[in-house]
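Incident log, support desk, overnight shift.

02:14 A customer reports that sequence design results differ from what the structure should imply. Their input is reproduced verbatim below. On-call engineer (initials T.W.) acknowledged and began investigating.
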């Protein structure tokens, strides 16, 4: 039992608070930019992108990995979010003749689910990129 404690005692990782602080600054700057172009994006888009940024900063920035890579992944995720909303807007405009009460209810219910899809997808791809970086550096250290 003592050998397990020794083995698990080495696994203590501390979050990188400096990366979190820098990530929070970049996330706020990105959000301020998005709120400036608020006439293009609707409120649900701004809420989803804000949620993505908070999720990203507090769950990915504390992990090991280069800061520049995390910042680029944050920018890429925000770009995907904006493109996702422009695509949604174009579909809504294309089907504007269906602008009935039922269509509005479907959009109201489906939009958060669709937002969840892009947020989880981008976050998981970013997590995979950071994990692959860690594996590559561990492989190089062994050589």
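02:41 Re-run completed on a clean worker. Output:
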């Amino acid at each position: 039992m003592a050998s397990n404690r020794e083995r698990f005692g080495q696994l203590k990782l501390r979050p990188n608070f400096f990366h979190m602080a820098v990530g929070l600054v970049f996330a706020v700057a990105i959000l301020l930019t998005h709120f400036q172009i608020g006439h293009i994006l609707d409120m649900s888009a701004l809420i989803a992108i804000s949620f993505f940024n908070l999720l990203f900063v507090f769950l990915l920035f504390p992990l090991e990995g280069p800061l520049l890579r995390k910042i680029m992944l944050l920018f890429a995720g925000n770009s995907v979010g904006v493109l996702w909303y422009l695509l949604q807007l174009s579909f809504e405009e294309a089907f504007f003749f269906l602008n009935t009460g039922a269509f509005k209810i479907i959009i109201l219910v489906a939009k958060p689910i669709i937002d969840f899809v892009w947020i989880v997808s981008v976050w998981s791809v970013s997590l995979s990129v950071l994990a692959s970086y860690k594996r590559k550096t561990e492989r190089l250290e062994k050589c």
